[in-house]
Amino acid sequence: MVDPLVVLAKLARASQVTFYWENQVSGESIVAIDAVAKLEITGEARFSSSEEFIQHSLSNLVCFEQDKPNNTDIKNIQPRFFCSFSFFDENDESDYPFSSGTVFLPRWQISVKNNRCQAMVNLAIDANTNIDTILHVVWTKIEIIQSLAYYSPNLNNSPAKYSQRLVANPEKFKASVTSALKAIGAGDFSKIVLASALDIYSRTAFNIFKSLSNLRQQHPNCYIFSTSNGKGQSFIGASPERLINVNNHFLVTDALAGSAPRGKTPEEDAANANRLLLSEKERHEHSLVIDFITQQLLKLGLRPQFVKFQGVPRLRQLSNIQHLWTPITAVVPNNVHPLQIIAHLHPTPAVAGESRDIAMQQIRRYENFERGLYAAPLGWVDTNGNCEFIVGIRSALIDGNRARLYAGAGIVAGSDPMKELAEIQLKFQALLKALV
């Protein structure tokens, strides 16, 4: 079986856009290399324009299979459009390396689902296309991919030695939290998510593939992702937060807010979990996200249902942190496209605040860096309208030997600046321990 991460390491060139996606819980990983069709867009209409781009591309798409597999999981895999959107409609920094909206249909798509592998190639063909030449190139690449079966190079490595400095220093972050708490007390908004950025530098260029390998080993319950712009920059991470999953018109989304560290012993871990479940402040922060998602889905005509356990949120327990978690489900009608749902949900109070518009204005004021793809939707949509999108948290922007790490904390009434700073520093560890 071919490992899509190995395919990414061996086949992708720096000049090509790429997308890597792995969810070990569902047994799925996928790599997309190069673009046969691509849209880069900015502005408020980016989601609707992306939907139009996908629909237009589908009208010109002809699919065929060399073999009809018996495995249903493989048979149902369709060409996918891979998407990345920034947190804001427009980036303030003109030199930020990713557009506020990018959608592409890949030339190569390698999928693994439940230990079965499928390779898919998308080609642009017109009256002047030399089919023999294209087939020769395709079969040459397929032979290379087949040669990678069961090939497991040493993608592991110890962390590189790097220097680091905080873009927003600890004192500034605590001052921002204190200021935000005063605004909350005055009734300006009820929650705001404040993020911090950490710049690190290595003597040599960071190895994207080894870093991704570390992430998937260290965070098996998270979505491991990477998207590259074809200009030398990549955005990678290990996100615990699913924004939406749509499969055969059945939607699942996550309300994920309220956090506590994992314990060093089983007893300490259980005590931390119990305090989190009983914390009025954390439960309030969590309820804001549930209420927001519910309202947005109702606006689309959906009927959200909550998945709770004995009347309380569940725990989403990760390697070094745990969150309050409430899955929300709904049936999606034929006339609602996944990107319409994304447009309504992004950003949720889990990464922005409440009320959303005011919180987003204040985020611009408090933060002196570009969020870009941080805390924003990344994922895919297939030709049948199935999709999966995550929120790009626990993430880093990589550019050669430079990396910018991002982490945020939700501020509500009762928040403690010192505890919020500790939460930020804890979240940075996900990438600090993985980057090589």
From TrEMBL:
Species the sequence originates in: Dulcicalothrix desertica PCC 7102
Family (UniProt): Belongs to the isochorismate synthase family.
Pfam families: Chorismate_bind (PF00425)
EC number(s) reported in the record: 5.4.4.2
InterPro entries referenced in this protein's UniProt entry, alphabetically: ADC_synthase, Chorismate_C, IsoChor_synthase
Catalytic reaction(s) noted: chorismate = isochorismate
First-level EC class: isomerase
Name of this chain's protein: isochorismate synthase
